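User: Fold this; tokens only.

Assistant: Input:
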Amino acid sequence: MDNGTSATDIITYIGIPLAVLGVLPILYSFVRAILVQRSIRRTLHRHGLLDSSITRGSLMEGIVEVELPRCTITPLDRDEDPEYWKLNSHQVFLKGGSWSVFNWNTLVTGRQLVRCQYKDELRVPEADIDFEDLIAFLLDRGAVPDPKGWRLLKSIGLWTPTGTALLLPPRGISGTVLKVATPDNADGLLSLQVDWKSEWDTRGSFSLPPFWVRLKQPGSGKLLADGKETMGEPETIDIKDDVSDSQDDHEPQAQDISRDSTLVTETTSDTEISASQPLVKLIEEGKLHVTSRPNDSVRFKLDGDRVHKVLFEDEELPTGEIREMASAGETANLWFISAASSLSQSLESELWNFTIPNQITSFVKRKSVPCGVMVLLGILNDDDVPPWSSPPPSLQDSVHEVGERMRQDMYERQLENAMPPAQAAEARRVRMMRSAHEFHNQHIARQKAVREYEDRRLVEAIQSSRLENGTVAQATLAYLIAEKVVPEDYTTKDLALAVLYLMVVDNAKATLIGDILERWALWSQFGGMQKVQLELLIKNKVAFCYAAALVAVVYHAEAGDSNPSTDMLECLKSWKRVRLG
């Protein structure tokens, strides 16, 4: 070349630098892979995963491959392992490692390869766990289901938005315990993320296990004004067949036939009513027949959708005595668990694994008790309900009829005075016989009017407008308070809890209450109440009041629309296993 440069010089001064520049990315990837691998190994060591993982780097590509164990986890033994109630002291704070916040039984089922270019991409494999076991464990720790989250998960399944909360911390605390997470693969399993803080721990080994319920014996602190703890028992009333048996046919009198003195009202008052026995005493008497050891509470657990046995406790410790519930009947058992489920927020543990049957939920929402029946039972007054009955017939003679009868009697007496003695005596005898016959006919007519009015009043009561079940429960509670069957500070919820305890210790009462509820549901569904059903309520008015309390608590629970049990159970059936990461 003219300037004295040769091809060798060009290669030396231009080609070699260009070649070096071409190798620099490879060198950069090489160095970065080494640094990332060292950083990942330090991270794995810090989280206690180094010994169980395998790391290798593709230095030319700048990628670090990490093989991490994939685990299947199950909760520890609740009663035997104290670590069940503790948080993991070696929690993994990497992505996918939220499950390590708790201590688990861990079984390695395989390995998962994670490819990382940066240490921030390192992700711990999600753990497989039985969905029901996970929910039961978190509920046992004190978590509370979020109705909106379960409803959303039931509706759209795997498309549920990431971050949707399924379980919340114990009541009154903000945060999220269990939420939907982004899956790390597309294998069709639901991915979840869990979180827990030590300040959320409100339960321990002393608490009831999940899906168990404790009922404490009613009575403590519930006193009447006279210092006696009282509740009532179902009462038996005999219906009179005819009010005319007690009347004198020879001296008929006009009978008061006002709305408050009809046949049915009379049978529910005065001497026909048995004395109400305090429920606390009734429960104690029932306990004497079914237990022999001191006890102050019971606990039970669902077996399917029924309660088969109840365990007695003394100071929250089992006494070893068991009460079988099957003999009370299917209806009583179903209503027992339905009411307990509705009241479970007031109890120590909630029955998240039970859904109230549709036939009961639809029944409690229907207006079914006629207002006239409540009046006939003596639970409400006519002033408390809309007009429902026709006015009673008048049994008094009119002024004109009385005056005409007196004038006729005076005229006949004057004629008798003008007659010879023998003829006057005969005329007087005829007049008195005619008068007695007229009085007898009037008496028969009055009794017929009474019976017709009573029959018509029964029909009108059955056909009268129906009341909400909540209104019926409030009225029956007020009646029990007025009769000193329950303390004045009792609420419908208190009464329902007491009734549940009564059903445990007295199968006869439980069967009676279940029979009333069954008949109640039947007339609610099929055309209204019949006379025979009204007679049943008249004979067992207090038992009807008890049944109304159970209906009311289910009614209020369903009206709140906040029970996630139905949606949660559907989701547990849809996903047997989930990924927790």
